[in-house]
Design brief:
22% of the residues lie in helices and 40% in strands. It contains two helices and 18 strands. Strands 2, 4, 5, 7, 8 and 9 form a six-stranded mixed β-sheet that branches. Strand 16 and strand 17 (224-227) form a beta hairpin. Helix 1 packs antiparallel against helix 2.
Length: 270
């Protein structure tokens, strides 16, 4: 009977060890979940809109966000639900209501439709019948001239995350070349040499080797060249990595503990 009990304990210890080894292996091969972020880039604090005016709401986002909710806030409270759910492509054409009340305390809030805890709110901007509107194109029109609209001076893009480089041009045929250069530097790194100009954007995942610093995007189209506003590339969030390594450590520690207990049982019970 004693031998049976010992054997049973050995089998239980072996099964427990195997389970924790499997969990540890899963932790090692399963990538840490990326932290999703949103950032409203338009309207800005200098935006002035009139009732009935068209404008384009823009934002940056990381991969993993597919649909967003867009709201107009007044004084921090919801004034209008602009879109309950729309595709997260970084841009939304919006017409201010013709009877919208005057005010300088309006904001746009964009929320991940799947995760309400992920959202971004614009600075305060103005809507009023008596203001001089900020020039904005009507939907479907193309502003004249070559210009990079994203990133902007307020952009803070994270290493290892994906963002959209956006531009406008009166001629949307052919391709453009995009380059990353540190602010004040004459050297640059090629992002792409063949982005279709007609798409008006290019999705770019910032390489993990990119140093944290201030940068500009340079775009070359034919014989023309233009640079973006200076923006920040910042370190990737370490929250996901923290729990990832905690899980690995706990799994490995428990596996080792079970192994030690099994060895003690074998030495003391036989």
């Amino acid at each position: 009977i004693r031998a049976i009990k010992v054997r049973t304990r050995e089998m239980q210890a072996t099964h427990a060890l195997s389970l924790f080894c499997v969990l540890t292996l899963i932790a090692l091969i399963h990538p840490a979940r990326a932290v999703e972020t949103l950032s409203v880039t338009n309207p800005t604090s200098g935006t002035r809109l009139s009732p009935g005016q068209y404008t384009t709401i823009t934002w940056t986002y990381t991969s993993g966000i597919y649909d967003v909710k867009i709201e107009l806030l007044k004084g921090g409270s919801v004034d209008t639900l602009i879109a309950s759910s729309t595709g997260c492509d970084g841009t939304y054409s919006w017409r201010v209501a013709s009877d919208q009340a005057d005010g300088a305390n309006y904001q746009i809030r964009i929320t991940d439709a799947a995760q309400p805890s992920v959202y971004s709110t614009s600075p305060y901007f103005q809507i009023g019948a008596g203001v001089t509107p900020t020039p904005t194109p009507t939907p479907g029109s193309t502003p004249a001239g070559l210009a990079i609209t994203q990133p902007s001076s307020s952009s803070k893009w994270k290493v290892k995350s994906t963002y959209q480089i956006r531009w406008t041009d009166s001629d949307l045929t052919g391709t453009v070349s995009l380059y990353l250069q540190k602010s004040g530097s004459s050297t640059s790194t090629t992002i792409t040499s063949s982005a279709p100009k007609s798409t008006k954007y290019y999705s770019w995942k910032i390489p993990s080797s990119t140093a944290v610093a201030k940068y500009q995007i340079r775009m070359v189209s034919g014989g023309s060249s233009v640079e973006s506003d200076t923006f920040d590339i910042v370190a990737a969030s370490s929250v996901g990595d923290f729990w990832y390594y905690i899980m690995i450590g706990v799994g490995a520690g428990l596996s080792f503990l079970v192994f030690v207990v099994r060895m003690i049982w074998q030495c003391c019970c036989k």
